[in-house]
Amino acid sequence: MPxxxxxxxxxxxxxxxxxxxxxxxGFTASRRRVLGGLALGGLTTITGSTVVTMSGAPALAAxxxxxxxxxxxxxxxxxxxxxxxxxxxxxxxxxARPRIAVPSDRLVxxxxxxxxxxxxxxxxxMWEARELAAVHATGLPVANRSHFAAMxxxxxxxxxxPERSGWLNRLLGESGESRAVEGxxxxxxxxxxxLFGEEPILSYPTLAGATLAGDKPSDSRRTRxxxxxxxxxxxxxxxxxxxxxxxxxxxxxxxxxxxxxxxxSYPRSDLGSALATVxxxxxxxxxxxxxxxxxxxxxxxxxxxxxxxxxxxxxxDTLAASLAAFFDDLxxxxxxxxxxxxxxxxxxxxxxxxxxxxxxxxxxxxVAGAGVSGGRYHGRWPGLxxxxxxxxxxxxxxxxxxxxxxxxxxPGASLPQVFPGFTRERxxxxxxx
Length: 433
Fold this sequence. Notes:
single chain, alpha/beta, Alkaline Phosphatase, subunit A, 2 domains, 12-stranded mixed beta sheet
């Protein structure tokens, strides 16, 4: 089966326009209320460090009863699933990694074949409570060792399809509603491909930093906002409604910012800060349902290291401690939240001369929180080979994991719409699936 090509830009289609100074896009929303009116198609406004991307689709009037939340945590740079979820029962693992293999006697949550990296000790209570599971040998159906091409293919999740949107944006379109901050990318930089599409999304590094472009914290008169209100308040056009909506969206974020930010209880890292903001957003009860967070870089061609030091142990420590703090911070909304980790591909089985690992294929995914069939390792193990160019073979298409989560947590969504042309296989990582 040939690899699915990365789709080039569509000829004649103008990329999204950034119009921060014009305040030209937004959406009408207020706390726990639905959108009103139309948003502008194809325009993006950057409101301070916040991005509001709008579609031309009309707002829908119904609010779903299901308040499930999915957080997609991307381990950018291609994490090594064989180090995080160790197949200690496969002798080829230790033969292929004489210097960097994780010792069997140091593993946690260990069964007769698999065990978790010891950095995951903070997550053991969730494992023992059956709120955390791992799925091994997952990934793209055909190996793709280009970071950028693999990330795009992974986040589109529609190889061979004419769809030019990300799978999370398509899931937003299946929700039957358009609520305030329903789809959110938290962290620095642009929103990921998975959220790109017609449905409105927000992107911000912190709730407290969300502001209209041109607003100055020192300006108590809020000159920028006042000018926009005078110009557009009585304008019933699409542009007028969009500008009014952008201002309303900022007010919603301020409601969320009134929640305590417990970042001090997280590791001091970009991931800790981002997950603290996600928890703050969810406790603000704004209607957020889909969230993306990036954590990287996991691209460790050299100095991946051992338990005594190196790059991986520090990254794994941060990942596990941040996730543990996040679930503790969720409070009363914890039973609504499911987290899944994803990475563009895995690493080779055999270590290289630089105490690192080169680009591979199969990987492991972690699934935690609500609805998870936890305390178990899922997937079909293909066996490892101790050769220079050996990969962990993918036996579970990553979309089967995502589709099972969607089916369990968003049962009203159409899987053929979210994952066009794909028929999922049962994984068993979610209860009732």
